[in-house]
Structures are given as C-alpha cells and as structure tokens.
Amino acid sequence: MLNNLQQQPADALLALIKLHNSDPRADKIDLGVGVYRTGDGETPVFGAIKAAEKKLVETQDSKAYLGPEGDMGFVEALMPYVFGKANPTQDGRIEGMQTPGGTGSLRLAIAMAKRAGVTRLIVGKPSWPNHNQICADLDLEVFEFGHANADGKTDMDAVRGAIAQAQPGDAILLHGCCHNPTGIDYSNAEWDEIVGLIAGKGILPIIDLAYQGLGNGMEEDAYGLRRVIASVPEAIVCYSCDKNFGLYRDRVGALYVLAAEKDGLPKIMSNAHALARANWSQPPDHGGAAVRLILEDEALTKQWLAELDEMRDRMRLMREKLAAAGKTGGVDLTPIGGQNGLFSIIPFTPEQVQAMRDKHGIYFAGSGRINVAGLTQGNIDKFIAAVADVTA
Ligand code: LMR
C-alpha cells in the first residue's frame, strides 16, 4: 500500500541546510534558511531565554498536560505586544491559544477558515512557500497577486486589484512585517489604504506576524496588524516566537482570533481547540513557558528587548553596507537598504544562483532570497564581489 506513494521533493529551503553543511570550503556562506546570526556567524540562545530556562528547570513542578490551548499565561502575556497595551483584548473580542510555531498557527487558521466557509485565500506573490503548501494540503484555492515591483517597492495596484476582485468566501493573507521572502513591507500609509479597502469587502484577514521586532521595532512592526484589528469585525493573527525569541526548533507560536462579538469567541475557539486536538493534541510546552517567564519578569523583558535591538541594528548595518555597494555587476543592491527583516531578493537567474554555490560557496534559496543575517563584517565584501562576478 505505502508503495503507492509518490516521491516528494525535499523542501527546498530546508534542503539548503544540508547542502551548505556538506560544502567543505572554510569560507562558505549560509544565507539560506531564516535564522538570525551574530557578527560571528552564530545563532546563540538568547541570554534572556537561558535565564528563563534556568528558572523553569528550578520551578516547574509538573509536566502534566495543559490542554489543546497550551500555556495561556504565555498566550496572554504576548497580547499587549501584539495588539497594544491600551486594549490588548479589544474589549474581550480577542482570544488566543498556543501553537507549535507559526506554521502550526497558520495550519489552524487556514483549516478553521475553511471550516467556516472560506473557499479561497488571496496571497501576494511571492510569499513564504509554506503558505501555498498548507493551502495545497488543505485543498484550498489560492488567488495570487503581485506583491512587489521590480524597483523594490510594493505593488499597490496589484493589492488594490486583488481586493477589488475579492468575493464572499475569500480570506486574505497579509505579512504583518518583514515580508518573507522580499523584505518589502507596506508603509503605514499603504496599510491605512489596505485597511480601508478590506473593511468594506467582508473578507477575512489572516495576518502572519513571524518577525515582530526584527524590522523597525516591536511597536512599529505591529502598525499594520493593529490597524486591521481596529477596523474589521473578524480577523486571525498567526504569531511566531521562532525569530524574536530565537526559539526556532522549540516551536513556539500562537493563534489569535478577533471575533465580531465577544460572545462569539467560545464557539470559534472550540473549533480551534478541536482542530488542534486532531492535529497535534497539545503544543510543546518548554519554549512557550520560557517566553512567559521572560514576559512576567521586568528585568528579563528588558534583557530580551535589548537583545532584539542588537539583532535589528546588526541586520540594518548589513543592509546599509549592501545598499552602499549600489550597482554591483548586473544588479542593483540599493533597494535592500530600505527593506526589513531577515530577507531580501536579488534578481539572480537560476544559473547565477548555482554559480554562487559552485564557484563561491554561497548558499541561498533558488528564488534569489538571501538571509541578510548570514552576512557579517567578515564575509560581506566576499559576498558583494561574488555578486559582481556572477551577474557581470
Ligand atoms: C524561512 O523562511 O527560512 C523560515 O521561516 C524558516 C522556515 O521554516 O522556512
């Protein structure tokens, strides 16, 4: 029976980890999967997480099940950061639950939207490949619109057109900040316009916020999400702590639902809980508990935010250096300076991507997406020279 299965290609992004690891060259560069790296090229555990984990080991007195919603202390402690300190529950209209990473949250969100009658997801192109993979697995139609123009700016005409064509039963997936894979975010004015367009259409916004704090700051990066939440009756937020707490493999995320009426939440959340039960039963506890301990402790919160600031500043510096290189071979690196987060796309041809790997030992996605955090003061000149070489 199992012989009937067709061979599946390895996930292209995850396969890059192995490709890079097996390259023996000492000066190889990994700009593949989205993990932050320090100026020494390391991905260390946050100091604040280490301290919280120590506390957790000392104080946790049980590992008994918590239920499909996970650690609600964690879920609620994050809410002021996501939705704002002034009214984090929107007068009781928002409730959340813990999920295994942002992917778990997206899986739940899309499955629940489908269960509620959503027949199509409107998604910008390009998007994080797993968005489309989850829709394909759930058999949900995807309607794509161009996310950005060749000049490195958002394609507002495309988003306007997509929303104008939206039909009842549509949901729209928006990246809250640090767009993956382009790094090209909507400006505040563009968010204002998008919110106005969505509000009149009765479509369900699903906001993927996987990089809060890595763009322009925790508050700044929540602008679009908060504007959407303030303007629509219903929305879903898919949150990831993988990057902003450096918890990648611990799988820490949350799903938040904004309901039209406070009284509607129990019914909606019962569906989210039932879907979680059928998928993973309960989320892994450890990372979420560590985040909760940080957010419950003023000194640890300060330490975490300072660590996040440092990451953001370092990535900004690398972006500035790339932008300063300007026209490099056949490509212009200038727009990268104004983009946000871990990723940017350089318009390499497939042959140029291969040449970067074979000739220079520099690994990144076939789409031309580079992880800016893989660049350091020690390797950025080599990277720029390699770009000039392969695109000349
Ligand atoms: C990425 O896009 O590289 C990250 O979000 C990691 C992943 O799971 O793909």
Q: Report the radius of gyration as a whole number of Å.
A: 21 Å
- How are the strands ordered across the major sheet? 2-8-7-6-5-3-4
Average pLDDT, rounded to a whole number, is 97
- The CATH homologous superfamily of the largest domain is named Type I PLP-dependent aspartate aminotransferase-like (Major domain)
Between the first and last Cα atoms, what is the distance in angstroms?
Answer: 52 Å
GO molecular function: identical protein binding; L-aspartate:2-oxoglutarate aminotransferase activity; L-tyrosine-2-oxoglutarate transaminase activity; pyridoxal phosphate binding
Keywords: Aminotransferase, Coiled coil, Pyridoxal phosphate, Transferase
Subunit structure: Homodimer.
Family: Belongs to the class-I pyridoxal-phosphate-dependent aminotransferase family.
In short:
By secondary structure, this protein is an alpha/beta fold.
Can you give keywords for this protein?
coiled coil, Aspartate Aminotransferase, domain 2, identical protein binding, single chain, L-aspartate:2-oxoglutarate aminotransferase activity, 13 strands, alpha/beta, seven-stranded mixed sheet, 392 residues, 2 domains
